[in-house]
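hey can u check if this looks right to u? its 221 residues, i copy pasted from the old doc so theres a chance i mangled smth
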Amino acid sequence: MERVNHSVVSEFILLGLSKSQNLQILFFLGFSMVYAGIVLGNLLILVTVTFDSRLHTPMYFLLINLSCMDMIVASSATPKMIVDFLRKRKTISWWGCYSQMFFIHLLGGSEMMLLVAMAIDRYVAICKPLHYMSIMNPRVLGGLLLSSYTVGFVHSSSQMAFMLNLPFCGPNMVDSFFCDLPLVIKLACKDTYMLQLLVIADSGLLSLVCFLLLLVSYTVI
């Protein structure tokens, strides 16, 4: 209710990468090809692993989940960015912006934890090869995947919780091609210095923990 009562901004304007019409057409073509490559590449991995019974192993199970995350996180902002290259007025609703940030942080956090799960899988495969299939059983794989999504959800929810009660009364221009959380927070009609520090600390802590876990895993290997 506080956001409804004190916010007059119902949409944000994305400034994009450039105001030059020629450059925007070039960006449209370039990013369209890159996005198509991302989707087709990950779909190829999904189809190959699904239909080749020789690849039905724990490592490839985690790999196809990583491919799914890659496709979804790329689709959370890229299609709109590509379409916006052809528009003069690049706008996004408040809830559209909120949803975009939520899914980017959800899948970004989940992806980092899934990389840790893949490092654990490689540790077991290399250091305990004779017990690999018994250790990395479907129950363990399901637990690792669920943990990845849980960490991503908690991370994203904690980030978005900072946004819910922020009042926005103008300006509403985001200097980016998508809703970037730190840039959107700066537009709030209040002092958000401490809030920005909390957002950076939240993301930084998750990145640091994942990095240390990966470092430990590969050091042991």
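Residues 35 and 74 are 7 Å apart (CA to CA).
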